[in-house]
Amino acid sequence: MKILLYGINYSPELTGIGKYSGEQARWLARQGHAVRVVTAPPYYPHWQVGEGYSAWRYRTEQDDGVTVIRCPLYVPRQPSALTRVLHLSSFAASSLLAVLGQVRWKPDLVILVVPTLFCAPQALLLARLCGARSVLHIQDYEVDAMFGLGIGAGSRLRRLALGLERWLLRRFDRVSTISSGMLDKARDKGVHSKRLLFFPNWSETARFRQVPRNLALLQRLGVAPGTRVLLYAGNIGEKQGLELILDAAKAHLHRPELVFLIVGQGTGKARLLERVNRDGLRNVLFAPLQAYEDLPALLASVDGHLVIQKRGVADSVLPSKLTNILAVGGHAIITADPDTTLGRLCSEHPGIAVLVEPESVAALNAGIERVLALPARNEVALNYAREFLDKERILQRFMAQV
After folding, report:
1. Burial of 195 (0-12, 13-18, 19+ CB in 10 A)
2. Considering only CA atoms, which of 179, 144, 115, 195 is closest in space to residue 323?
3. Distance of alpha carbon 317 from its chain centroid, rounded?
4. Fold category of 205-387 in CATH
5. What Å distances lie between residue 101 and 25, 38, 104, 122, 216, CA to CA?
6. Is 208 helix (H, G, I), strand (E, B) or coil?
């Protein structure tokens, strides 16, 4: 089968959507499919185009049997509501000809990964011209996330954006997304249940199983021996409300045996660093993104994992970091309301994580105390990962359904 995967994020990005799109494309190629990818140069989560790539040039490369076509895009230094729209629309514009140029190749399956929905018209047009099946895979509900953060909150603009999103979603042959709550949201947006697919993010579970604690790795990141560690690893952006971690750290300054480790990059990092210095939060450490090879050891070496989100976005985005936390048997503290996807996960699988009220430092502090009292490994999380998060099972099931 000829498969075109279309999306703004792709390998070698180490976190988020790009990681999963890269793994999916390479897996499809190993199954014998002819796979092409139309994407942008790597830029996430640093919001800076990776070394060796250009933001303004087209480029074609080979990635483990996959043909990757990189298209220019605008990458803002400090993303805002306006510059994010320009960023997404620049990729939609630059990739238009690259996508429609695939008419001669005649793909059998066109998969668009959202964000960004700006690319939906050309994905649909290509599928129609080639007689291909079209799949919209939703990693983030970008419209809901935007309004959930209070961006562009005018009611007229909101109605227009949601109406256009609803119209586009109903034009694809299949719509897949990564959680039960996000499937419910697609139904609310008018997508018929028969066209919906559950396609969760996965973990390479074998790599994360029975990984020992690596004290040398922690020391390299600045953690003193004998210290208990609460980890946030991933994008340091606006969606999560990571100032809450600093509030919790301030409340725990009297406990020298406890440290908050923030590993990652993003647009909000400078702001967090400034506050740490201003408030003298000596129990907060920062480290850059770690190599994927070191990720299992990092996740297995800490006492608790902070999965922090603001109220209002917990069903618009699902943190991809959670899959590997569960696969390693980690104890996660999740800030989400009980009626969200993450809240239902915790109620349906008691013990899988500690659920606390979002945007409440008191609730987060109570969750931290609960996690620190738990055994080293979370057996509920391990069993869930083995059953529901295995990469091979998930990708095989997806291809059987599209």
Report:
1. middle
2. 179
3. 8
4. Rossmann fold (3.40.50)
5. 19, 11, 7, 11, 50
6. helix
Nearest to 258 by CA among 267, 245, 249: 249
Contact call for residues 289 and 265 (beta carbons, < 8 A):
yes
* CB 296 within 8 Å of CB 211: yes
Tokens 């991809």 sit at which residue?
Answer: 320
Q: Pseudo-torsion of CA 23, 3, 84, 278, nearest 10°?
A: 0
CB-side neighbour CA atoms (13 Å) of 297: 13
Structure tokens given for 338:
């009980």
pTM of the complete model: 0.85
For the segment(s) 2-199, the CATH number from 3.30.160.20, 3.40.50.2000, 3.40.50.300, 3.60.140.10 is: 3.40.50.2000
pLDDT tens profile 128-174: 999 999 999 999 888 877 665 555 555 777 788 889 999 999 999 99
Instruction: Give residue-wise pLDDT tens across range 250-299.
Output: 999 999 999 999 999 888 898 999 999 999 999 999 999 898 899 999 99
CA atoms 126, 135, 87, 10: torsion sign: negative
The C-alpha atoms of residue 212 and residue 223 are separated, in whole angstroms, by: 17
Alpha-carbon distance of 181 to 273, in angstroms, equals 34
DSSP letter string, 151-163? TT--HHHHHHHHH
Q: Whole-angstrom Cα distance, residue 176 to residue 282?
A: 44
Structure tokens at 267: 């647009």
Question: Where does the chain hold its CATH 3.40.50.2000 domain(s)?
Answer: 2-199, 205-387
- Rounded CA separation 373/379 (Å): 15
Burial class (CB in 10 A: 0-12, 13-18, 19+), 235: buried
Q: What angle do CA 190, 176, 340 make, to 5 degrees?
A: 75
With CA atoms as reference, report the closest residue to 19 among 122, 113, 116. 113
CA distances from 94 to 89, 100, 138, 183 (A): 9, 11, 21, 30
Question: What is the mean pLDDT for each group of 10 consecutive residues in the chain (402 residues)?
Answer: 98 91 97 98 92 95 97 90 89 97 98 96 98 96 70 69 92 94 92 95 91 95 96 82 95 96 90 95 95 94 94 68 94 93 91 96 98 96 93 95 94
Scanning 3-80, the segments in alpha helix (DSSP H) are: 17-30
